[in-house]
Specification:
single chain; alpha/beta; Aspartate Aminotransferase, domain 2; Aspartate Aminotransferase, domain 1; 2 domains; seven-stranded mixed beta sheet; five-stranded mixed beta sheet; 12 helices; 15% strand; binds pyridoxal-5'-phosphate
Length: 377
């Protein structure tokens, strides 16, 4: 696939050449666990589907192309992708991680990986000096999300990558933005990771994780770990994510257009105390958003007057479904304190209890605004 093609073109074609044996234009779902060999060790490149599967390989090539990386890897969930990346490291190794991350990432790092001797420092990534101060001679990884979930703070990927010491891998969880908004490898990051459950899949019908990177040695280690650990997606899920990705470009445009209008509506609403959205001039890092993000995306957070009012409000919407997750064509609303981020309660990264998070879908924006107007009464 031509490197010079743009994202919208790559989304539809990269990794997805018509099937050479039948001409099928859609990548077949190779629903098989094993592959026949003509003699021991003589095969057509596939031996066993934990190791490799043609449908999965197509998706892996696709994510590599979308992120501008040389290599891609697919996993059974975003969490298993993160877990596999963390297995690159050894007891005693130190990780610097943003203090406003996905609740599941916090739980995995502190409650599971920490038991195997890795050390974590939770740092405000909007403060470059604090990040520099957090590095130790044992630091091997900087883990960041931008925009953060759920407070919508931005991390300056290029600045953080440039200031990371030699020997520290910079990994970006790009789930909230998608490559249609920002491509971290192009900004100097070493590894980019996605929960493809969200914007890449885009239709709330499959759970998955994806990774892209350029460094051959790190790729080989991750590929070894992917096969050795075995947290791989089935071919049907790979197919669904590929089908979702075909419309990524137009979806993200509409998500962003709708979200900007909704953020403006919320900002003017008397019962909303604060709106966090990178497309608003009131966002404290609006300049960075303009520089780093092609579009502001579909995620909005807001602070209401109390925790009780927030819980009532999220139960009153009709179009915005009360549910965890994000990034699908349908709009979702949630109360992070009691839902997605419940695992961070009483921790240093706990979220405000009057916070409400919206994943703005691609329905008609006027219907969405009417729904919020009624629910905010
Ligand atoms: C959902 C999510 C994950 C975890 O992905 P799963 O597919 O649910 O395992 C990781 N990071 C972010 C930012 C997420 O939103």
């Amino acid at each position: 696939m031509e490197k010079s093609y743009r994202l919208e073109t790559l989304s539809i074609h990269a990794g997805q050449a018509p099937d050479p044996t039948t001409g099928a234009i859609m990548t077949p779902i190779y629903q098989t666990s094993t592959y026949v060999q003509s003699a021991p060790g003589e095969h057509q490149g596939y031996e066993y589907s934990r190791t490799d599967n043609p449908t999965r390989r197509a998706l892996q090539d696709l994510i590599a192309a979308l992120e501008g990386g040389r290599y891609g890897l697919a996993f059974s969930s975003g969490m298993s992708a993160i877990d596999t990346i963390l297995r690159l490291f050894n007891p005693g190794d130190h990780v610097v991680v943003g203090n406003d991350v996905y609740g599941g990432t916090y739980r995995l790092f502190e409650r599971i990986i920490a038991r195997y001797g890795l050390l974590f420092s939770w740092v405000d990534l909007t403060d470059l000096d604090a990040v520099r101060a957090a590095y130790t001679p044992q630091t091997r990884l900087l883990w960041l999300e931008t925009p953060t979930n759920p407070l919508m703070a931005l991390a300056d990927i290029a600045a953080l990558a440039a200031s990371a010491p030699e020997g520290v891998l910079v990994a970006v969880d790009n789930t909230f933005a998608s490559p249609a908004i920002q491509q971290p490898l192009m900004l100097g990051a070493d590894i980019v990771m996605h929960s493809s459950t969200k914007y890449l899949g885009g239709h709330s019908d499959a759970v998955g994780g994806l990774v892209a990177l350029n460094d051959e040695a790190v790729y080989k280690q991750l590929k070894f770990l992917q096969n050795a650990i075995g947290a791989v997606p089935g071919p049907m899920d790979c197919f669904l994510v590929m089908r979702g990705i075909k419309t990524l470009g137009v979806r993200i445009e509409r998500h962003s257009e709708n979200a900007l209008k909704i953020a403006q509506f919320l900002e003017d609403h008397p019962r909303v105390q604060q709106v966090m959205y990178p497309g608003l001039e009131s966002h404290p890092q609006y300049e960075l958003a303009r520089r780093q993000m092609k579009l502001p995306g579909g995620m909005i957070s807001m602070i209401l007057e109390s925790s009780e009012y927030a819980r009532e409000m999220v139960s009153r919407t009709k179009l915005f479904a009360l549910a965890e997750s994000l990034g699908g064509v349908e709009s979702l609303i949630e109360h992070p304190y009691s839902m997605t981020h419940a695992s961070t309660a009483n921790s240093p990264i706990a979220v405000p209890n009057a916070l409400v998070r919206l994943s703005v879908g691609i329905e008609h924006v006027d219907d969405l605004i009417d729904d919020l107007r009624v629910a905010l009464m």
